[in-house]
Amino acid sequence: MPVSRPPLSDRLRCQLVGCLPQHAVSRLVLRLTRVRNRAWIPVARWFTARFGVDLDEAEAPDLHAYEHFNAFFTRALRPGARPQQGPPDTLTSPVDGRVSQMGTVASGRLLQAKGIDYSLADLLGGEAELAARLDGHGFATLYLAPGDYHRIHMPLTGRLRRMTYVPGRLYSVADWTVRALPGVFTRNERVCCLFDTDRGPLVLALVGAINVAAIETVWAGVVTPPRGRRVAHWEYDGPAAPRLGRGDEMGRFNMGSTVIVVAPAGYRWSPVREPGDRVRVGEALAPPPDSKGNPR
């Protein structure tokens, strides 16, 4: 069956965003969202109403507690707001957001949208050997909308082994772009993190987008901007490598974007969520494999 083309309106919007000075726009957003001026508070009130932000979940529910808009946007949640579900080796959601896709890496490729797939090696910045090791593993693509909580947490306990920065564009990663722009996640700037877990390798790919003014990790701080035009790797060896427990914060987006999780072998999403389904930090996504490493 022929694959239907995405709507013309989606394709035109992608072309328009492609013509924008994406990095310059995002750097401007970075500056504006860090202005220490109380004029941002009415904007935050509008934002809260427009996107349904639940400030009752925030550690600091009073807007006046934040020094600027970005501090509000990357707000912490009150203790206990996102409990971890299931036994300690249950894989849980790293973010609040919506499922874009869930499935299995097949012949080195991940499903982006109906009729569109892309290369895992390209997503990882050309790491073909790692991509081959992860073939057949489960993956989940999780989209963070503007009103979502924007800190990223560990879905399993793991020790960091490699962080890779991959330069790229900053297209939107909203539904209309994912449907219309092949390989958008491999076109956009991103930070890919490889962890060792008791169950095997775990990858978290933090994909940037237009207006995502910075991607941070808890061990390196702000990774981008600025970074450059070449792929960069950081290796973490031995006991000094950062070790993060399941549910610990590992990073954050300054404005919204997408996280792609590639799970260790044997994890299978149960149940498989449909595109558009909501997930929250700590929600069980996949039970641990059995004692022989087989999916339950």
Q: What structural class is derived from the secondary structure elements? A: alpha+beta
The major beta sheet can be summarized as: 9 strands, antiparallel
DSSP strand (E) fraction? Answer: 25-35%
Q: Round the Cα radius of gyration to an integer and report it.
A: 19 Å
Q: What is the CA–CA distance across the termini? A: 34 Å
What's the number of helices?
A: 8
Shape: globular
* Helix content range: 10-25%
Mean pLDDT: 90
- What's the β-strand tally? 17
* Poorly predicted runs: none
Order of helices and strands: HHHHEEEEHHEEEHHEEEEEEEEEE
Write the layout of secondary structure elements.
Blueprint: H1 8-19, H2 22-32, H3 40-51, H4 69-73, E1 91-92, E2 97-104, E3 109-113, E4 116-119, H5 120-123, H6 128-133, E5 138-143, E6 151-153, E7 158-166, H7 175-180, H8 184-187, E8 190-197, E9 200-207, E10 214-217, E11 221-224, E12 232-235, E13 243-244, E14 249-254, E15 258-262, E16 278-279, E17 284-286
Antiparallel strand pairs: 1-17, 2-5, 2-16, 3-4, 5-15, 6-14, 7-8, 7-12, 7-13, 8-9, 9-15, 10-11, 10-14
Question: Which features characterize this protein?
Answer:
8 helices; 296 residues; alpha+beta; globular; 4-stranded antiparallel β-sheet; 9-stranded antiparallel β-sheet
